[in-house]
Design goal:
Blueprint: H1 8-37, H2 46-72, H3 85-104, H4 108-117, H5 120-129, H6 131-151, H7 154-171, H8 175-188, H9 192-208, H10 210-218, H11 227-250, H12 255-273, H13 275-290, H14 292-314, H15 319-337, H16 339-374, H17 377-417
Helix pairs in contact: 1-2, 1-17, 2-17, 3-16, 3-17, 4-16, 5-15, 6-14, 6-15, 7-13, 7-14, 8-12, 9-11, 10-11, 12-13
Length: about 425
């Protein structure tokens, strides 16, 4: 692994490792210099302690240099037994490291504890509250959605509709299910919004286009009647329609709404319990689904929806994106305010993380052994030394200092014993 192939971070590690090696080597040289300079001095006084301390410091420094070096290579290139441990036994080390990582880190209990400690729900809620973060989420989601939409071709949709959806719908009796669904919709009042929309749109259209209404109804007026009579009847019909629609629009308890609810309940009941109506519904379903234009119509509708979505997602300030940003921010608010929602989210994350570890933990940890086994011995030693070698130099430094202290102690004991 040459300097040219190192990342900037590895180059910084290599520089720090060299500095620590120089410091450790400098202490050894200093101890040797002190030892040699005091070798011929009388050792019955202070100089004896200095000489003994320097000698022991050299021994400690050399011993720990040998121990540290023996991990990564043969000291001085001499193939001493039990040296160059990492190059020779890297595969065993990799497997042991994998087992250690699996047994002590990739456990369900530890993963659950760490996920719970991170308070993902609270931190995510706080992050999503910030508008710039919400905009970023929507922008990334829009980009992914556009990529996904672009990959769905008309042929894919046509195949899905013709080969999967339509045959399944034709084979499944839908009258009873449709009746259950319609009954649930009416019971919950979920259709009221659609009624409001339809009534409102029709009322607004009539208000904007009275002449069109006059033309459509006037064409069907009897030709034998005088023109002014027909016009008055058409105008009266228009006024009655506007008044009727406005009454329905503003009155939630209007008789027409109640009549519509009764009609829908009756249709739902007939679909559920009346065999004749259910059979007619199934025949109508079959006629619609067997018509060759059905699949083409669905594909055409999808193409329109796809184009509209793509345009809305591409626009920087579309209404869809603005609504999405507000929805993301509201979700962030809910995570902070709703303890139950936050607990459910964090619980799901814990369950998902535990499932991944429980099911794939052993396979994930094999990345360690597989990666190290692909390295040759010297490459593995260089990489490991690059990451931990600097800290190991403190062993050499400490060995020099401890050796010096041990030498002083031994010299003192020797003087006392004499």
């Amino acid at each position: 692994m040459s300097i040219a192939t190192m990342s900037p971070a590895d180059q910084e590690r290599a520089s720090r490792l060299r500095r620590m090696k120089l410091i450790a080597l400098g202490l050894l040289v200093l101890a040797a210099a002190v030892y040699l300079s005091t070798l011929r001095v009388a050792h019955d006084g202070v100089w004896g302690f200095v000489n003994a301390g320097a000698e022991a410091a050299m021994v400690g420094a050399l011993a720990d240099w040998f121990a540290v070096t023996a991990l990564f290579r043969h000291p001085l290139g001499i193939p001493v037994p039990h040296t160059a441990i990492i190059p020779r036994r890297k595969d065993d080390i990799a497997r042991n490291l994998q087992s250690f990582f699996t047994e002590n880190f990739l456990t369900e209990a530890i993963v659950r504890e760490r996920v719970a400690a991170t308070r993902v729900g609270t931190r995510l809620g706080e992050w999503l509250q910030v508008e710039t973060n919400a905009v970023r989420v929507v922008a990334e989601g829009s980009r992914l959605a556009r990529v996904g939409l672009a990959r769905i071709s008309d042929d894919d949709v046509n195949h899905l509709v013709s080969e999967v959806i339509v045959p399944r719908l034709r084979s499944e009796p839908l009258a009873g299910a449709a009746g259950d669904l319609l009954d649930a919709i009416v019971t919950d009042g979920a259709h009221h919004g659609l009624v409001d929309l339809v009534v409102g749109e029709v009322h607004d259209w009539l208000r904007r286009h009275p002449d069109t209404f006059d033309g459509i109804v006037g064409e069907r007026a009897p030709r034998w009647a005088p023109g002014f009579v027909n016009r008055r009847i058409v105008r009266w019909t228009y006024d009655q329609a506007m008044e009727w629609l406005w009454a329905i629009r503003r009155d939630r308890d209007h008789p027409t709404r109640a009549a519509l609810d009764d009609l829908l309940r009756q249709i739902a009941g007939d679909l559920q319990h009346n065999p004749v109506v259910a059979e007619r519904a199934e025949k109508l379903k079959d006629r619609l689904l067997s018509h060759p234009q059905t699949a083409e119509t669905i594909v055409s509708l999808w193409r329109t929806v796809q184009g509209s979505l793509d345009s809305a997602l591409a626009a920087e300030s579309s209404e869809l994106k603005q609504r999405a940003v507000r929805a993301v921010q509201r979700f962030g608010d809910s995570l902070l305010d709703d303890d139950a929602l936050r607990a459910r989210l964090e619980g799901r994350l814990e369950d998902a993380s535990a499932f991944v570890v429980r099911t794939y933990g052993a396979e994930l940890s094999t990345v360690i052994s597989h990666t190290i086994e692909r390295w040759d011995g010297e490459q593995a030693a260089r990489r490991i030394e690059l990451h931990v070698g600097r800290d190991l130099q403190f062993i050499r430094i400490n060995g020099t200092v401890v050796g010096c202290l041990a030498g002083l102690g031994i010299h003192a004991i020797s003087l006392l014993v004499r």
